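Hello,

Our lab assistant flagged a job as stuck in the queue for most of the afternoon. It eventually completed. Since we weren't sure the result was trustworthy after the delay, we are filing this so someone can double-check. Below is the sequence as submitted and the structure that was eventually returned. Let us know if re-running is recommended.
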Amino acid sequence: MALRITTGEENGVTVLWLDGRIVLGAETEMLRETVKSLLAQGKKKLVLNMNNVTLVDSSGLGALVAAYSSARSAGASPRRPMAGGARDLDPGPGSGPPLGPQ
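-- returned structure --
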């Protein structure tokens, strides 16, 4: 299944609902371009909802890292949804990788 990206606003936060695979090709390019476009529109609060992502290959992981880096460089605060609410993607020095409930 190709990647489908749906965007919307919730309480002043831009949410990207990702559905499908984030893999080499059109899918990674679409993710990069969508994030780039939102940043160009001045969107500074971004959440990537990946609940319906079925596969991420190495290129997909690279696209996610690039999106995060671009957002941070643009002064945005990218977040990931977690049970109990969104948490900052950058947990700070020495706190380990941002995987699972913390």
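-- support follow-up --
The delay was a queue issue, not a problem with the job. The result is valid. The beta strands are 4-10, 13-22, 45-56, 77-82, 85-88. Residues 12 and 45 are 8 Å apart (CA to CA).
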